[in-house]
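hiii, so i know i said id send this last week but things got crazy w the move. better late than never?? heres the sequnce for the chain we talked about at the cafe, plus the structure i predicted for it. fair warning i was half asleep when i ran it
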Amino acid sequence: MRNYRVTWNDAMEGHQYAMRDGGRPGIRDENAIHSALARPYYGARPYHSYHRWIWQKAAALVHGIIANHGFVDGNKRTALYLVDLLAENSDWDIDVGDEEIENMFVRVADGQVGYEELAIWFRGKIRRPDA
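okay and structure toks below
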């Protein structure tokens, strides 16, 4: 099992991809982005982080990107790009439709869904490709 770590370059690429359909490009708060990218891996040693499982890492990443609002625009779209990258490069699939994930991310952005609920939601959506 691979444990992919999402990077600053991934976030910049994801934001550029998110802006292809419109929006205001740019960074509002660089530290907020760094914080969101580090959140899934918080802990004293590699692989012993607070967010141990892939669905916890996915929730921490998505919640951090959306709630921290580090980009001027496109935070939800960037979060989607990054969580897809995290799952795919860690040998997992996210089994959820576009409308369902969009609705969940809007609820996160509106403050209706926090990290815990998002982690539970992702737990039911992330699975091994052969499962």
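btw The longest helix spans residues 54-68. thought thatd interest u
miss u guys!!
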